[in-house]
Design a protein that fits this description.
Blueprint lengths: L5 E9 L8 H8 L2 H4 L2 E6 L3 E3 L10 E10 L3 H14 L14 E7 L7 H8 L3 H4 L18 H11 L11 H7 L2 H5 L2 E2 L1
Antiparallel strand pairs: 1-4, 1-5, 2-4, 3-4, 3-6
Helix pairs in contact: 6-7
Length: 189
């Protein structure tokens, strides 16, 4: 390993068929694309069925999480994930809209990007503004990790002990703080 090697936590989601391929099959197939983009797949969670977020926005999702390693910068990793999404015909027409494949870069090692003040702005953005406002730069860790059981349940399979660098909480602790009703909605396939 080189000293520039990073660990990337990535959430996977899909709720639309892709030319007759089910969301689960799309996600399973996309796993082979990580290596082509310079990542090593270190761990993969189980696959989970989860209600669409926000409620009523479309078909339910299949979600998972992976741990990747590689010599990429955070920006290059995000660009690589976007290329994989495009390969599976992901379109970006609506925030939180339906998608054939969604790859969210949740964290890169212990980085807080671009800085703590900007991270905190997006992390504390009121719910009513989250749907219409989106950052024009990479924010790490993902500002909503702690709020989403559909991210935390799969992430706990592969990175339960990862500690959020701004919140000081592990994935296991953030998951335990999620309402039990939300955790219960995330069912292993």
């Amino acid at each position: 390993m080189t000293e520039n090697r990073s660990t990337f936590l990535v959430a996977l989601g899909s709720n639309l068929e892709n030319e007759g391929t089910t969301p689960l099959a799309t996600m399973q197939t996309c796993l082979t694309e990580f290596r082509k983009e310079g990542f090593e797949l270190s761990a993969i969670s189980r696959f989970f069925a989860t209600p669409c977020f926000p409620a009523g926005a479309g078909p339910d999702y299949v979600n998972a999480a992976v741990v990747l390693t590689g010599d990429l910068s955070a920006s290059d990793a995000l660009a690589a994930l976007h290329r994989i999404e495009a390969h599976f015909r992901r379109t970006r027409t609506e925030r939180w809209g339906m998608r054939t494949l969604d790859l969210d870069l949740l964290a890169v090692d212990q980085q807080v990007r671009p800085d703590r003040e900007t991270f905190e702005y997006w992390q504390t953005l009121p719910a009513e503004r989250q749907r219409k406002d989106s950052p024009d730069q990479l924010i790490l860790p993902h500002p909503r990790i702690q709020d989403r059981a559909f991210v935390l349940v799969p992430l706990a399979d592969v990175a339960r002990d990862w500690v959020h660098p701004a919140l000081g909480l592990s994935v296991g602790q953030m998951l335990a703080a999620c309402p039990a009703t939300e955790r219960a909605e995330v069912a292993a396939l």
